Amino acid sequence: MIAKSMAPLLAGASEIRAMFEEGLKLAKVYGKENVYDFCVGNPGLHPPKEVYEAIDYINHNMDPHLVHGYMPNAGYDSTRQCVADYFNRKYGTDWSLNNIIMTVGAGSALCAVMRTVFDPGDKMVVFAPYFVEYANWAYLSGATTVAVPPNEANGFEPDPAELKKILDPSVKMVIINNPNNPTGVIYSPETITGIADVLREAEAEYGHPIYILADEPYKELVYTDQVVPFLPDYYDHSIICYSWSKSLSLPGERIGYVAVPNTMDGFEEFMGALNVANRVACGTNAPSMMQLIVERCIDAQVDVPYYKKNGQELYDIVTKAGFTAVVPQGAFYLWVKSPDENEYDFIKALKEERILGVAGSAFKCPGYIRLSFCIANETIQRSAESFYKVGKKYFG
C-alpha cells in the first residue's frame, strides 16, 4: 500500500506526459514525420559547441577524482564562484560563492527552497497559468497552494491587486516564472514593482518575510527588446532558481543552482538551512562533471534566433488558420485560445489531424492550449495544412 501523501499526486499525473505517450502511438500508425507533436518542452537543438569543448577538455586534462568525485554539498567552490561572477558582471551585484548553491536542476532547487521555508500549514501563491509541479512540491513540504486568477485582460501578466486580495499571514512564498511557461509572456518591470510593493506592505503587517521564488530557466530565451527584470533589484527577499536545461539544451543532465542575495534577512542561517535541504533531498550534490562543464560555458547559449523563428512561424500558421494566440515574447511556447468552451474538445479536433498540444487546464487555466515550438522547424512547416483543416472546421 502506498503512502496516503502520494495518492493525490498519483491522481494528478502529468497530462503533458500522457500526450507525449499518445504521440508515440500515433507515430507508429502514421509515421513520425506525419505527427506534429507540440507537447513537451524538450529542447530540439544540440548544445552549443562550448559544451563539447568543455567535455573534451575535462576528460583529457583534469584529475578523475575531481571530475567524478564527491565535493562539498553546495557544489564546487570554483563553479559557485563562476556563477556569482556571472551575476556580478551582468547585474552589478557583489556576490561570492557563498550566495550560490549548485543543484540537481531547477526542480531540485525549488524543492530545496521550499523545504527551507515551509512549515506545515503555510501557503504558497502562484499566478495562473502556472507549472503545476510547483503545487506538488509545496505539498510535499506541508504547504498548500493558492492561485491568483489569470489576467487575460493584461496579456496574462500578473495583477498585483488580485495578489493583495488573497494574501494572509500564512503566506510564506510567491512564485514567479519569468519568462512564463506556458504563456511565453515576459513580466514587465511595472508588474514586478507592483508585486514587490504589495508584498512589502504585507510583510510589515504580518511581521515575517514573504519570499519571492523566481523560477528562471527561460531567462535567456527572449525574442523581443524586453528585459527580464532582475528580482533582487526590486525585492530584498528574492530567491533565484535556475537550470541550464533550456539555455544549453541539457534537460536530462540535471544541473542548476539557487542564488540568494545578501539582502535576505538572516542570510547565513538561511544559506545553512538551504544547503542541508539540498543535501537531504536525496541528491547529495549536483552532478560533478556537469558543474565543471557549465563553469566553462557560463556565457554560452543555444541558437536563440532559431527558437524565435520557430515561434513566429508557428504563430503565423495558427493565426492564419483562424485561431487567436499570444505572441511569444520568451520561453518556447505558444498559448492558443480554444474555440471550444471545453478545450479538451479542441485537443480532440487537433488530434484527429495528428496535432498534439496540452490543455490549458493542465496549467490551471482552462480555455487555452499550449504548443511547444522547441522542435524541428520542418515539423512546424508540415503542420500548417493540418492546422488549416482544423481551422476550417471551426471557422468555415
Quote the distance from N terminus to C terminus. Answer: 53 Å
Poorly predicted residue ranges: none
CATH superfamily of the largest domain: Type I PLP-dependent aspartate aminotransferase-like (Major domain)
Question: Any idea what the CATH architecture of the largest domain is?
Answer: 3-Layer(aba) Sandwich
Task: Detail the topology: elements first, then pairings.
Layout: H1 7-11, H2 15-30, E1 36-37, H3 49-61, H4 64-68, H5 77-91, E2 100-103, H6 105-117, E3 123-127, H7 133-140, E4 144-148, H8 160-166, E5 171-177, H9 189-206, E6 211-215, E7 238-243, E8 256-259, H10 267-283, H11 288-295, H12 304-320, E9 325-326, E10 333-337, H13 343-352, E11 355-356, E12 358-359, E13 368-372, H14 377-382, H15 384-395
Parallel strand pairs: 1-11, 3-4, 3-5, 5-6, 6-7
Antiparallel strand pairs: 2-8, 7-8, 9-10, 10-13, 12-13
Structure characterization notes:
The chain has 15 helices and 13 strands. The chain is an alpha/beta fold. It has two domains: 4-47 and 302-395, Aspartate Aminotransferase, domain 1; 49-295, Type I PLP-dependent aspartate aminotransferase-like (Major domain) (Aspartate Aminotransferase, domain 2), CATH 3.40.640.10. The strands form three sheets. It has a seven-stranded mixed β-sheet, with helices on both faces. α3 packs across α11 (288-295), α6 (105-117) packs across α10 and α12 packs parallel to α15 (384-395). The longest helix is centred in the middle third of the chain and has 18 residues, at 189-206.
What keyword list fits this structure?
396 residues, alpha/beta, Aspartate Aminotransferase, domain 1, Aspartate Aminotransferase, domain 2, 7-stranded mixed sheet, 4-stranded antiparallel sheet, 15 helices
